[in-house]
Amino acid sequence: MNDLAGKHIVLGLSGGIACYKSAELCRLLTKAGATVQVVMTEAAAQFITPVTMQALSNRPVVTSQWDAREPNNMPHINLGREADAILIAPASADLMAKLVQGRADDLLTLMCLARPVERVPLLLAPAMNREMWAHPATQRNVAQLQADGAVVLPVGQGDQACGEVGDGRMLEPPQLLDLLLAHFQPKVLAGQRVLVTAGPTFEAIDPVRGITNHSSGKMGFAVARAAQEAGAQVTLVAGPVHLATPWGVKRVNVQSALEMQAAVQAEVGQATVFVAAAAVADWRPANASDQKIKKDGSGLPPALTFVENPDILAGVAASERARSGALFCVGFAAESHDLEVNAQAKRVRKGVPLLVGNIGPATFGQDDNALLLVDEHGCRAVPHGPKLALARQLVAEIARRLAAGHG
Ligand code: C5P
């Protein structure tokens, strides 16, 4: 996705072994459509060469406040004014300490001090040894930087280059890209608590077999991510899928429809928005065997009987909080034909104000989709696009309805 098209990012590197990851980060930023201007400290250039960063950003790297290539000889002013965001990755302990003090004895710190604070966000991706990260001086500096308006991104946990294990690693480049993208999203769901179901359910026949469906969970995961990007606190109840948990989202894994229902019931009391994107199995075997069912030599299959699963969405939509307007419910419908008619009928049957129709066979497992938003007044098509882009539009629609008192 060309999510950063039109954005100009100043990528600052201070000195740390995590500089090796900044090459990959630069690549990801440009692939996402951004133009990238790299600024490096002298220490950063000990870890990775400006040549590498120039080749990847397709622009000369700036390292010195005395760089005479700028016509007015003021790179520290020009660079900050042009940026949509300054991202410093890695941000060393020393760099953060300098920023706290407002020191400006190299180009990177000078540029940060000179940036228009209201207009140009400053994001820092700390990277250091775990003792340095945990030190009260560093933690004090982090708090002060946040108070001064910088966004201090989280650190990763794990093996460190020094051989120790703990907090303080720089996040991986794809995570940093996701956090930057999230930063640019409007915070239209700030203060909301969003509960999402996603993926298929798996209904056991015996310990080794079961029935499930082709839902990949991608649409529901995209909704969870988009809601998180929009500032909501998000819980994602996920059936069995192999998808990474979106950043900052609380995930509860379940297998069966009954487990999904229990997880939803445990969480929905705190939610203000419920989005049911899961493809819940309609039926489950009436009596799952606790031992593997064997062929008995008769040539006859076992006589399986099924019972209907509870309708999780309809149950939540009928609750007191949903009916009083404290909880806004959104359903999904995967249809194979007559989308509008079927989706409208399903919306009424489920008792939800908004239902999202899509053509199931066309979207299962894909990264793209097209949506039809159906409410009591009619429908609106959200044209074909990546699931994350569609999810962001759905989130914007939900936010509009919340702001208008669900109208
Ligand atoms: O009836 P159908 O399965 O087509 O309804 C789809 C919508 O209802 C989806 O939002 C789905 O997550 C939800 N649903 C549910 N519990 C079920 C069946 C469907 O929450 N047992």
Explain what the structure shows.
This protein is an alpha/beta fold and 407 residues long. The chain has 2 domains: 8-184, Flavin prenyltransferase-like (Rossmann fold, 3-Layer(aba) Sandwich), CATH 3.40.50; 193-290 and 298-403, CoaB-like (Rossmann fold), CATH 3.40.50.10300. The protein has 16 helices and 19 strands. It has helices at residues 19-31, 44-47, 50-57, 75-82, 93-101, 107-114, 130-134, 136-147, 173-184, 218-229, 257-268, 312-317, 320-324, 339-350, 360-363, 387-403; strands at 8-13, 35-40, 85-91, 122-126, 151-152, 156-159, 165-169, 193-198, 203-206, 209-211, 233-238, 250-253, 273-276, 283-285, 306-308, 328-335, 354-359, 368-375, 378-386. The strands form 5 sheets. It has an 8-stranded mixed sheet, with helices on both faces. Strands 2-1-3-4-5 form a 5-stranded parallel sheet, with helices on both faces. Strands 6-7 form a two-stranded antiparallel ribbon. A hairpin with a 5-residue loop joins strand 6 and strand 7. Helix 5 (93-101) crosses helix 8. The model has no long low-confidence stretch (mean pLDDT 95). Residues 197, 257, 276-278, 280, 309, 311-313, 331-333, 346, 350 line the site of cytidine-5'-monophosphate.
Q: What's the number of structural domains?
A: 2
What is the third-level CATH name, the topology of the largest domain? Rossmann fold
Q: What is the name of the CATH class of the largest domain?
A: Alpha Beta
Return the average pLDDT rounded to an integer. Answer: 95
What is the total tally of β strands?
Answer: 19
Biggest sheet: strand arrangement:
12-11-8-13-16-17-18-19
Global morphology? elongated
Helix content: 25-40%
- Poorly predicted regions: none
CATH superfamily of the largest domain: CoaB-like
Number of helices: 16
Approximate strand percentage: 15-25%
